[in-house]
Amino acid sequence: MVEKIKKNLEEIKNDIKNIRGENSGVKVVCASKYTDGQGIVNIINAGIEYIGENRVQAMKDKREYLETLKLEEKIAWHFIGNLQKNKIKYIIDYVDLIQSVHEYSLLEELDKKASQKGRVLDVLLEVNISGEESKHGFEREELLNLGEKLVSFSSVRIKGLMTMAPNTEDLDIVRGTFRGLREFRDELNQKIFNGALTELSMGMSNDYRIALEEGATIIRIGTRLFN
Ligand SMILES: *Cc1c(COP(=O)(O)O)cnc(C)c1O
């Protein structure tokens, strides 16, 4: 299992090098919903440095399993799912990046909780670029209207944007979504953030190459690593 993940990771890193050159700094986040605590140990041994979990309970369980092996510091914990406010307390102590902040009231609550812990929490804003009803995330207009309120937090630091491509075979639509996220990041940087938005989390197993071509700094990979 470890050898297979290692080989898959090598291939992905090779794609990153071919598309973006050496030392691009692009992060490969392993989407860990497909695996358990022991699976995370395999992932670490295969050389993965970041994991992205969708569910609070699963992250908590996996983290506790790694603690028993003193391995919990070997990996950075990203949250990539739908975060409910009443569950923030279970991950606030150790989560490194919450990629999927999808509403303003969640930002406020994260700021409050992080401040109580005396820490600064890095987050990404999830944006619904494709405009699909089913997709989570801020609408572009909503963020532009929030304006300076987005840079008024003391304990939450917004580092960039995240999006999910629509579920389609049409690669032009996928590319358009990723390009749209990059252009919107640039617009927000200019109008509100003064260049502070450096991260673009976009691209999964089937479309990460396109995302890399469009400027992704973080790709979230599940099946392509495990299969
Ligand atoms: C599962 C998941 C991924 C990875 O999906 P794959 O297609 O298996 O690579 C990426 N991002 C999120 C939010 C996910 O839930």
3D architecture notes:
The chain has eight helices and eight strands; from the N terminus they run H-E-H-E-H-E-E-H-E-H-E-H-E-H-E-H. It is of the alpha/beta class. The chain has an eight-stranded parallel β-sheet. Helix 2 crosses helix 3 (56-68). The protein is globular, with a radius of gyration of 17 Å. The protein starts with a helix and ends with a helix. Bound molecules: pyridoxal-5'-phosphate.
For the structure shown, list the relevant keywords.
alpha/beta, binds pyridoxal-5'-phosphate, 8 helices, 227 residues, 8 strands
In short:
The protein has helices at 2-20, 37-45, 56-68, 104-116, 140-146, 171-193, 208-213, 223-226, and strands at residues 27-31, 50-53, 76-79, 97-101, 121-126, 156-162, 199-201, 218-221. With 227 residues, it is an alpha/beta fold.
Bound molecules: pyridoxal-5'-phosphate
Order of helices and strands: HEHEHEEHEHEHEHEH
List the strand order in the largest sheet.
7-6-5-4-3-2-1-8
- Strand content of the residues, in percent? 15-25%
In whole angstroms, how far apart are the ends? 9 Å
Poorly predicted runs: none
Radius of gyration: 17 Å
Break the fold down into its secondary structure elements and pairings.
Elements: H1 2-20, E1 27-31, H2 37-45, E2 50-53, H3 56-68, E3 76-79, E4 97-101, H4 104-116, E5 121-126, H5 140-146, E6 156-162, H6 171-193, E7 199-201, H7 208-213, E8 218-221, H8 223-226
Parallel strand pairs: 1-2, 1-8, 2-3, 3-4, 4-5, 5-6, 6-7
Bound molecules: pyridoxal-5'-phosphate.
Pyridoxal-5'-phosphate binds at residues 31, 33, 54, 80, 204-206, 220-224.
